[in-house]
């Protein structure tokens, strides 16, 4: 290389270093919840409380366990030095494994609160998609560079890798099902299932037309879901048959199954989270809207959803009761059936009373009384004039979430009986 080229090369290198240093100095670290995971019994929540920049001291990159109801801290684990993105419970709840951008994974004993093992020097800068095998004897991690590694949690030693032909395809997401089958997707939109018992692999060529960002087994491992860069979510059975395809206009960052495997949470980048029905492919309800969700999980009993947003909440995470997401309908109560005598004109004034109607999660905002589709009144209490005969009166109530309920009351108006001679004085 001549002196002129060398001078120019050195100048460019120095300029790049200078501008990079300025840029890095201007980037302030942000508080970030990288992952949330309910314990299998649902009483505790593991989370990663971390800065989104590396090198600020281990005390800024925490793996924590909190009470799932009070959110009070139970345990804190310190040992990482960079952004944490994943945490996963073993099924026996004795262990946690955590990992992130520094390229290591650490297994913690949740009883003794001690570090069990650390897996490093085998992975690139980044460890994600941490997932345990069904017997808690192994766990799998996807690392930057597209490799899938399987580790012994007791020693931290690598014991296996995903089939070598997949490595060159750059794996993006991995999940280990209770059927001992590992599902994973790559940047080319290819899905694969690897049966760890038989070492047999099933490939899904052309499963997606964009990089696959998330792969997730259902709790029963009878179905799994995959989401790609273009916001396409596909639901598959374990034999590679498509059950449903959901299309969104933005990237999907998280998939979380309901405990019964009938519904799934779809987290859309910068747009919040929604619950969808797997069979019908219909959206059921919003969990949260217009928020950047960084982590989310569904409790094993199906009653709670825990999530974290950016900027971080004061309590780190929020827990919502699933029952509050699905409005319950009001209960209409038209009262007991009525029998009344008509007056001399052949009619009777009848007081209809709907004050026994209730709404457990809101307020009843309207009452409608009708007979044979004819509106009789709209009050909670309504006096109506009815002729002799048997009348079927319908009550419909509507609450503040537009949920409705109906009830009926039978009103019998009897003719006034004429006085007989015996009745005469």
UniProtKB/TrEMBL annotation:
Superkingdom of the organism of origin: Bacteria
Protein keywords: Repeat, WD repeat
Sections of the chain in a coiled coil: none
Matches recorded under Pfam families: eIF2A, K319L-like_PKD, WD40
Cross-referenced InterPro entries: Ig-like_fold (IPR013783), PKD/Chitinase_dom (IPR022409), PKD_dom_sf (IPR035986), TIF_beta_prop-like (IPR013979), WD40/YVTN_repeat-like_dom_sf (IPR015943), WD40_repeat_dom_sf (IPR036322), WD40_rpt (IPR001680), WDR55/POC1 (IPR050505)
SMART domains assigned to the protein according to its UniProt record, in alphabetical order: PKD (SM00089), WD40 (SM00320)
Ranges of the WD repeats in the UniProt entry: 77-118, 205-237
Stored PROSITE patterns: WD_REPEATS_2 (PS50082), WD_REPEATS_REGION (PS50294)
Domain PKD/Chitinase: residue ranges: 337-416
Name recorded for this polypeptide: PD40 domain-containing protein
């Amino acid at each position: 290389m001549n002196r002129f080229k060398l001078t120019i090369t050195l100048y460019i290198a120095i300029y790049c270093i200078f501008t990079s240093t300025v840029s890095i100095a201007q980037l302030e670290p942000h508080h970030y919840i990288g992952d949330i995971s309910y314990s299998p019994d649902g009483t505790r929540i593991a989370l990663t409380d971390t800065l989104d920049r590396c090198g600020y001291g281990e005390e800024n990159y925490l793996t924590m366990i909190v009470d799932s109801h009070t959110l009070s801290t139970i345990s804190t684990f310190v040992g990482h030095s960079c952004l944490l993105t994943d945490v996963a419970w073993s099924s026996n709840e004795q262990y946690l494994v955590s990992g992130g951008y520094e390229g290591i994974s650490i297994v913690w004993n949740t009883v003794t609160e001690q570090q069990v093992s650390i897996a490093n020097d085998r992975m690139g800068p980044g460890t994600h998609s941490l997932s345990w095998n069904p017997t808690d004897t192994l766990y799998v991690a996807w690392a930057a560079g597209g490799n899938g590694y399987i580790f012994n949690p007791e020693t931290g030693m690598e014991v296996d890798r995903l089939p070598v032909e997949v490595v060159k395809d750059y794996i993006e997401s991995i999940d280990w099902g209770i059927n001992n089958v590992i599902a994973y997707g790559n940047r080319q939109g290819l899905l694969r299932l690897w049966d760890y018992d038989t070492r047999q692999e099933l490939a899904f060529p052309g499963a997606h037309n964009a990089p696959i960002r998330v792969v997730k087994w259902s709790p029963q491992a009878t179905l799994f879901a995959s989401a790609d860069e273009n916001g396409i979510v596909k639901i598959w059975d374990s034999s590679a048959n498509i059950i449903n395809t959901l299309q969104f206009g933005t990237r999907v960052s998280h998939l979380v199954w309901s405990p019964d495997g009938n519904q799934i949470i779809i987290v859309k980048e910068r747009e919040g989270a929604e619950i969808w029905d797997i069979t019908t492919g219909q959206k059921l309800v919003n969990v949260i809207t217009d928020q950047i969700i960084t982590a989310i999980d569904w409790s094993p009993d199906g009653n709670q959803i825990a999530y974290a947003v950016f900027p971080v909440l004061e309590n780190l995470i929020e827990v919502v009761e699933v029952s509050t997401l699905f409005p319950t309908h009001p209960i209409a109560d038209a009262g007991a059936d009525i029998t009344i005598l008509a007056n001399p004109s052949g009619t009777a004034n009848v007081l209809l009373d709907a004050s026994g109607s209730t709404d457990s999660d809101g307020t009843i905002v309207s009452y409608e009384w009708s007979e044979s589709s004819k509106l009789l009144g709209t009050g909670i209490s309504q006096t109506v004039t009815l002729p002799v005969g048997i009348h079927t009166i319908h009550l419909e109530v509507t609450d503040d979430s537009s949920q409705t309920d109906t009830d009926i009351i039978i009103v019998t108006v009897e003719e006034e009986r004429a006085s007989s001679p015996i009745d005469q004085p």
